[in-house]
Give the backbone structure.
Amino acid sequence: MEDEVPVRQQFLEDLAHLQSKLVEMTLRTDTMLEGALDSLLAADLVKAKAVVRQDDAVDALDLEIEALCLHLIALQSPVDQDLRVISTALKAITDIERIADYAVDIAKAGRRLTRANLPYQPLVDVPELFGMTRQMLSRAVYALTHQDLDVVFEVIRFDNEVDRRYIVMRDTLMECLSEDNSQSVMILNLLFIITYLERACDHIVSIAARVHFLITGEFLRPNDVA
């Protein structure tokens, strides 16, 4: 019995460390999204290369966090809430890592335009969609670290607006393509970029849904969100 308090204290410290690593991974991914936009708008190959290079650090954190989760499961045999925390972390890192991959894809799309001597043209408001994606990511991680159910629903509702904006942008670009195929390279790459952002938001919703499970022990159903 005397060993239970130190063991529990160590477990709580390990969980706190796990949370800090999750936040670090998210911040690095957000920095990648910011860099991808900057490289696109400035037609900057150096910035695009920096985004691609940063993906290695995110991948390393992914592996580190996974190893920590498995360590906690193996040595502490967590149950109930503690196990939900660990399983949520394991799922979240998969989504965050995929968002980082999309940041790399966007940087590469911008790089293609730069190398083709086609500086970004605001045919649609790509920076707005970037801003919405980054806001969703920030709020999802807040929901995770503070276990805030209201913010979970806020994130999911916000994704509905992202979907609406994405559809408008996609349709606008398709209309531009049908009217003037001389801009096809620009338009197609912008289509790729907004699609990557929309998919990134889907992964952010997945994080929010896992936080719902963490807090309630129940999986989120589509009709649970008004």
Q: What stands out?
A: The chain has six helices and no strands. Residues 3 and 48 are 52 Å apart (CA to CA). The chain has a mean pLDDT of 92. The longest helix spans residues 4-42.
